[in-house]
Automatic annotation (TrEMBL):
<dbReference type="InterPro" id="IPR011075">
    <property type="entry name" value="TetR_C"/>
</dbReference>
<feature type="domain" description="HTH tetR-type">
    <location>
        <begin position="21"/>
        <end position="81"/>
    </location>
</feature>
<dbReference type="InterPro" id="IPR036271">
    <property type="entry name" value="Tet_transcr_reg_TetR-rel_C_sf"/>
</dbReference>
<dbReference type="InterPro" id="IPR001647">
    <property type="entry name" value="HTH_TetR"/>
</dbReference>
<dbReference type="GO" id="GO:0000976">
    <property type="term" value="F:transcription cis-regulatory region binding"/>
</dbReference>
<dbReference type="Pfam" id="PF16859">
    <property type="entry name" value="TetR_C_11"/>
</dbReference>
<dbReference type="GO" id="GO:0003700">
    <property type="term" value="F:DNA-binding transcription factor activity"/>
</dbReference>
<dbReference type="InterPro" id="IPR009057">
    <property type="entry name" value="Homeodomain-like_sf"/>
</dbReference>
<protein>
    <submittedName>
        <fullName>TetR/AcrR family transcriptional regulator</fullName>
    </submittedName>
</protein>
<feature type="DNA-binding region" description="H-T-H motif">
    <location>
        <begin position="44"/>
        <end position="63"/>
    </location>
</feature>
<keyword id="KW-0805">Transcription regulation</keyword>
<dbReference type="InterPro" id="IPR050109">
    <property type="entry name" value="HTH-type_TetR-like_transc_reg"/>
</dbReference>
<keyword id="KW-0238">DNA-binding</keyword>
<keyword id="KW-0804">Transcription</keyword>
<dbReference type="Pfam" id="PF00440">
    <property type="entry name" value="TetR_N"/>
</dbReference>
Length: 206
């Protein structure tokens, strides 16, 4: 079940149906296109409405602001993300997580979207909050893999499952943001192995 905290009180985050759903999909697709092309600095609700062929009033009424629209875009991205993969071992699960993160960052559209949103989050608190909620959803999705590993005796009792999951993706995002180089398959493997070794050693206990 998805973490419903992500959908609280942010304009545009209530999932609509019918025509309203089609309008939301068109606006979110267009918003993503503009972020990829121009970054956050070129983001304007009126431009989104024009390119999505949706009434400007509709966009302003439903999302209220650029940050409200970005929050909904992140909510949609979280919902569309692939579910966790369970391989039967903690290391296998962490590898699967690392592969998924690497594929996302390597994707021309998704990678560019994340770079634009992360850049915006450094100077806009509402965007930063939306980004934090996005990662809360994704980390909560994968944390059971670590919890199951604890139950199987692969990891020490008291291991912080969410911290282990974050430790897998952290070096991959760091590489992309600090060097501009998309992580490759060996980088994903190193990230998974490093997080697993640290967890086995008890680094994330307590």
């Amino acid at each position: 079940m998805r973490d419903k905290r992500f959908h609280r009180a942010e304009p545009g985050t209530v999932r609509p149906g019918g025509r309203t759903a089609r309008v939301r999909a068109a606006v979110l697709r267009t918003a993503g296109d503009i972020l990829v092309e121009q970054g956050f600095g070129g983001f304007d609700l009126a431009d989104v409405a024009r390119r999505a062929e949706v009434g400007k009033t509709t966009v302003y009424r439903r999302w209220g602001s650029v940050t409200g629209l970005v929050a909904d875009l992140l909510a949609d991205m979280a919902e569309q993300s692939l579910p966790r993969e369970e391989t039967g071992s903690v290391l296998g699960d962490l590898r699967a997580n690392a592969v998924l993160v690497r594929r996302t960052l390597a994707d021309p559209r998704q990678g560019a979207l994340f770079r634009a949103v992360i850049a915006a989050a450094t100077c806009d608190e509402r965007t930063a909050q939306a980004l934090r909620r996005f990662y809360e959803v994704r980390v909560a999705e994968w944390a059971p893999c670590v919890e199951q590993g604890v139950a199987r005796g692969e990891l020490p009792v008291g291991t912080d499952a969410e911290e282990v999951v974050r430790a897998v993706s952290a070096p991959l995002y760091h590489q992309l943001l600090t060097t501009g180089v998309v992580p490759d398959a060996p980088a994903a493997e190193r990230a998974a192995r490093a997080a697993h070794a640290a967890a086995v050693a008890g680094v994330y206990v307590g």
